[in-house]
Design brief:
Structural class: alpha/beta
Helix content: 25-40%
Order of helices and strands: EHEHEHEHHEHE
Radius of gyration: 16 Å
Number of strands: 6
Strand order of the largest sheet: 3-2-4-5-1-6
Mean pLDDT: 93
Oligomer: single chain
């Protein structure tokens, strides 16, 4: 039996920092109340502090897809398409299994904006979502159709960032 009577769809978007971190906050909450989470990352094929921390939480399954390097528009490799499809297949399995209370699709918005995935495929998957499953889609530039169907949309707006002062990513804080 699920912890949730009904699950909502969230979109965490915007140019500011904190989209993945906000999603991870939900993972901590879900784990703390005994729920199960599938955390599927698109375009992030490397381990870093944030996702290493997931291994300490009960009931959390992490699936990473993507190369161990950043992807830039105009420099997309055929392997990027294959990795994105692998992530979508994992998302489909996790979401439709009904085994999870929370499914995070981290950076799926970016995968869509880079053309690595079909919006139609993602929309069709969300339509099949079991009633009790909460779904979070993160990343910059989500298609308007995702924003429209979401129950909760948060736009992270950057006001200031330490990078503007030349401060690079700091272990335990940014990576």
């Amino acid at each position: 039996m699920s912890l949730l009577d009904f699950g909502l769809i969230h979109v965490y978007m915007g140019e500011g920092k904190g989209k993945t971190t906000s999603a991870l906050g939900l993972v901590v909450r879900m784990s703390g109340c005994g729920g199960r989470t599938a955390f599927i990352q698109f375009m992030k094929g490397w381990l870093y502090s944030e996702v290493r921390g997931l291994s300490f939480l009960p009931g959390v399954k992490l699936i990473q897809t993507g190369r161990p390097d950043y992807i830039y528009p105009g420099r997309i490799d055929p392997v990027d398409f294959a990795e994105a499809e692998k992530g979508l297949a994992a998302a489909r399995q996790a979401l439709l299994s009904g085994c999870y209370d929370l499914v995070i699709l981290d950076e799926i918005n970016v995968a869509l904006s880079f053309g690595l995935l079909s919006l139609g495929d993602v929309m069709e998957l969300l339509k099949k979502k079991p009633l009790h499953v909460e779904v979070v889609l993160t990343g910059r530039n989500p298609p308007p159709e995702l924003v429209e169907i979401a129950d909760l949309v948060t736009d992270m707006t950057e006001i200031k960032h330490p990078y503007q002062k030349g401060i690079l990513a700091r272990k335990g804080i940014d990576c």
